Amino acid sequence: MKPAATAHPHNPWLAHAVRISRMAAATPGVFICDLVFQDSAVAEEYTFAPGQFNMLYLPGLGEIAISISSDPDQRDCISHTIREAGNVTRALGELPVGSALGLRGPFGSSWPTENCIGRDVVLVAGGIGLAPLRPAICHLLAHRERYGELNLIIGAREPSGLLYTTEFDAWRADGLNVHVTVDRANSDWHGAIGMVTNVLDRLWLRQPENTLMLTCGPEVMMWYAVQMAIRRGLSPESLYVSLERNMNCAIGLCGHCQFGPQFLCKDGPIFRYDRVASILKVDDL
Amino acid sequence: MTSPTESNRSVLFLGRGQLNQLIRALADDGYQVVGPTIDQAAIVYGEITSADDLPIGWTDVQEPGKYRLQRRDDEACFGYVVGPHSWKKYLFPPVTLVATADRTKTGWQLSTPETEPPRYAFLGVRGCELAAMRIQDKVFLGGPFVDPTYQKRRAAAFIVAVNCTQAAPTCFCTSMNTGPRCSSGFDLALTEVADGFLMEIGSESGNVVAARLNVEPATSAQLESGNAARQQAVDQISKQLDTTDIRDLLMNNLRHPHWEEVANRCLSCTNCTMVCPTCFCSSVNEVPDLTGDHVDRERSWDSCFNIDFSYMNGSPTRNSIHSRYRQWMTHKLATWHDQFGSSGCVGCGRCITWCPVGIDLTQEVAAIRSSQNNPSVEGAVNSSHDNEGVS
Amino acid sequence: MNTDHPNLLKLLAATRFVEGISHDHLQGLCRASRLLKLPAGAKLFQEGAIEDEVFVISSGHIRLSMNVPGRGDVPFLTTGPGELVGWSGLIGDGRMTATATAIDDTTLIAMSGRRLQELCDSEKELGYVLLQRVAQVLSQRLLSTRLQLMDLFAGEKADT
């Protein structure tokens, strides 16, 4: 029997050889790792959409799913913002510039930048959740004229946990209202204190019914950001969340990342809220 | 390929003594013939070099949590139902090398194995097992990414189906519309009768092989005894799974107390997922050599019943047995429809037989269903919360 | 009658705090209110002090903090336009449970707690709506405090 097979140009298990071109400390426990392809033909062919992720591979240690945090138009390297949390990320964090590793990707769904055209957009990021939103920010600002009001609400545990702070002024200058809030701070912090939901609660929205929200952060934060957005008059169809589950193969074949009917690696990680709303609050799903 | 319909399919007859001819013809074509054979007191699938390797004169006795071999009073080659093995072990092997890494002076040489796949001829594929292959085809070949190992092995395989002539109390293929009749998806299909085998041709490759055998057109008496033999299997099927709206039934009851009740019995041993012909969960592991300069990336069968399977952020997402059993059953019977357009269950009954405590998924579904129909039964309290379920 | 009344009414009506409250009732609220402008850095009230007024922020931001011996002034929440601060003056005993400081130039509508209570007593419908509003503010405040307490960003994004 010869079942009809979908033609696919690449063996999906084949990792590309990449090299670390830059390593930078970002926030405590988080570093930024820029990668370049060893093969210029692969580099030429590689493109990604904001919100997608790569599998980074350290031979002998394993693979991890890391969202891409660079500007999709930037062609000279691909940037990943990584929290040191397990064996692979810790080992990766210790590698010097020039080290070789493997990369498979890009994988997964992306932020709905097409749907943002002609509408106001609120981006809500919590902690390292800003990393997968950064490519979307770059994309929106590169085509600023296509969009209405752009607001970014960033939440972090404390001021030292804020990512990309040196870019905030440039983002503001390019037409993005950046609102920063932290869970805790001492009195020398001059920014806001409180949850992203508090900021969203008082954010001026000129046309909530024509506003999209893209959010990434801890699941509980996203849930309450979504509830607040709905209270503020945004429709459930215009809210997008980025979910997280254990990813192993990234190609929808291993079963690890299932969340109800979804495979997070290929159907997600970014979902329209109303498509996952009914299962988001089912314990241990 | 379109299968000939039953009516225009010419049925041949292969004498009992000629079964070896078929095995030899397949071997001569370069196939490694695998089929049922007895090992460790079970009928399993292994390499077959002659009909003598088949479980001639043996049958299996099955019930929830029980499997025994028993002598038959005849010399039937295929007089059993299904054992713990399924053909997935050949198409989606328990351990597969998916990629390698070799240290070089300048970094890592990353490769994927380009070896030629083994060419298997499967002898004795049941109707439910043909259905299981169709389901795994969707999983491994139907999505945006194709699994190369499965693809090559599947494309190279020759399939000799054998219609069931008996059923176990654990069988419920008729509920899943997967059997017992083998109607398509094979190269050749046999029905065992007293003095030999009725043979149907399902593909051009099957036709080519059949042409080299001493076969003759089946007589109407032979056709009649074939029908009777197959009907016996249908008549013996006693188990049923009511699949009416089963997807919504389960997804609307994710918080049903019955999951906890099953969890009190379930050992989370993974047996059901290992014997299931459609379960496809796996994990890739790093296997470095002693120097660390060569690394094999090995994919092994895994199971949603393993606690580490859902590990994320320092802890498993599905920490409780109830959440893992719920994951397995709702995936198999409900969300599989969303993902692949069909149920993930073929009704083979292996998960029932090989469950060490005899958990029967058809009964667990029935328990949830009956609580819906009868508000006084457990779970009804919760149902109002669950009406929001996935749609 | 407050001399700021016309402007006050406009500013109050523009806040989300009074969404759904009738024009007549808004006028009633205004009669119990005054406009208050604070420069950045100015204290609105002090933890422990007894205040009669409750405040709706019209523009600007107010930071709430508590003094913890050895740690000094610990800020815990920033409130902004449309939000209510100093609610102890309305439903508590008037003793402030936080220190409130303007972090930028801030305009507030200050309402007399005593007069609001009288108003609510005499106009039960307004009292009901107003207290419902206050309850909503407090439930949101409670939720965000709980979320802060959960320390959601503490253990994010680990791999194996």
Please outline what is shown here.
Chain A is an alpha/beta fold and 285 residues long.
The tally of beta strands of chain B, per DSSP, is 16
Low-confidence runs of chain B: 1-8, 377-391
Tell me the Rg of chain C in angstroms.
17 Å
How many strands in all of chain C?
8
Number of helices of chain B: 14
Shape of chain C: globular
Q: Which bin fits the share of residues in helices of chain B?
A: 25-40%
Provide the CATH superfamily of chain C: Jelly Rolls
Give the N-terminus to C-terminus distance of chain B in angstroms. Answer: 35 Å
Supply Rg of chain B.
Answer: 23 Å
Q: Strand share of the residues of chain C?
A: 25-35%
Features:
heterotrimer; B: 391 residues; alpha+beta; 2 domains; 8-stranded mixed β-sheet; 4-stranded antiparallel β-sheet; 14 helices; 16 strands; disordered N terminus; C: 160 residues; Jelly Rolls; 5 helices; 8 strands; 37% helix
How is this structure best described in words?
The complex is a heterotrimer of chains A (285), B (391) and C (160). Chain A is globular. A seven-stranded mixed beta sheet of chain A has the order 10-9-8-7-11-12-15, with helices on both faces. Chain A has a six-stranded antiparallel beta sheet with strand order 4-3-6-1-2-5. Chain A is built from eight helices and 15 strands. Helix content of chain A is 23%, strand content 30%. Chain B is 33% helix and 23% strand. Chain B is α+β, with helices and mostly antiparallel strands and 391 residues long. Residues 1-8 and 377-391 of chain B have low confidence and may be disordered. Chain C is of the alpha+beta class. Chain C has one domain: Jelly Rolls (Sandwich), CATH 2.60.120. Chain C has five helices and eight strands, in the order ααββββββαββαα. Chain C has helices at residues 5-13, 23-31, 88-91, 113-122, 124-150, and strands spanning 33-38, 43-45, 53-59, 62-68, 72-79, 84-85, 99-102, 106-112. In chain C, the strands form two sheets. A four-stranded antiparallel beta sheet of chain C has the order 1-8-3-6. In chain C, strands 2-7-4-5 form a four-stranded antiparallel beta sheet, with no helix packed on it. The chains are: A alpha/beta (285), B alpha+beta (391), C alpha+beta (160). At the A-B interface, β1 and β6 of A face β6, β7, α3, α4 and β13 of B.
